[in-house]
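Teaching soon. Got one?

===
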Amino acid sequence: MQFAFLPTLRAKLALNSGKSAEAIESLKSALPYELGTGGVYPTYVRGEAFLAAHQGREAALEFHKILDHRGLLLNDIIGALSHLQIGRAYALEGDSAKAKAAYQDFLTLWKDADPDVPILKQAKTEYAKLP
């Protein structure tokens, strides 16, 4: 709780305030617990923080950690969203081929979703803008 859950909450609050560096810093204590007792949420939020800091390569690495440990996800939405976030990270880095592939993975996973879900609509818009 003290080393994974609370730092993740603090990081989300920092992100909501536009403080990506503070979010990344607050998640340092969660590193030893991630993908174990700390779950995947600290990793996901760190990836979000790297995206907010315009550090696409670092963000992609965090989201890949999640997808590399799919057994921890079960039916958690974080797995599908990680594909979208990887796409955003690659787009940020200017790698449109990898970005398109990641967006396509996300859109394939969500092909039967309600078309009015905001994140799906946003992903489709972002995908359409890729070169």
